[in-house]
Write a structure and sequence with these properties.
The chain has 159 residues and is mainly alpha-helical. The protein contains four helices and no strands.
Length: 159
Amino acid sequence: MRSEALAKWLKIIIFGVGICGLLTYMVILPRFGMYLVEQRAMLEKNLSPWMILLWASAVPCYAVLILGWKISSNIGKDESFSVENAKYLKWIAYLAMGDSIFVFVAHVIFLILDISAAVVMMVIIVIVVIGIAISTAAAALSHLVMKAAEIKEENELTI
């Protein structure tokens, strides 16, 4: 597959993920939260902190999508193995790890404040493990892209 075609498909996927995220954060989660409030009056006081947590955790996710878009643009320019892409991947690793830690710590605080249930921790742990896996994969890719960029630079200097 050519670089331009690959970049195009990556951008389509990134755009689709962004739209799905917007629908989830702006339509599905608020409606689900209101449904829970209707079912149990005690959840009414707990809805706002959860919505704030979810929206705050979305910020790093959209930053990752922006960085992924930049990486796709570089791939389209046939600059897949560049120091710039390695830096973007390193930032993706930091953002994924930071978001995972943020969600875990926030949920522990919610447990202490009796805003959440212990059973929700199972879902949070799955989400945190996925975030850590993404962070680890991005860090590994960053390292490999940096090494490939160094080799590419050495080859360009060779006559």
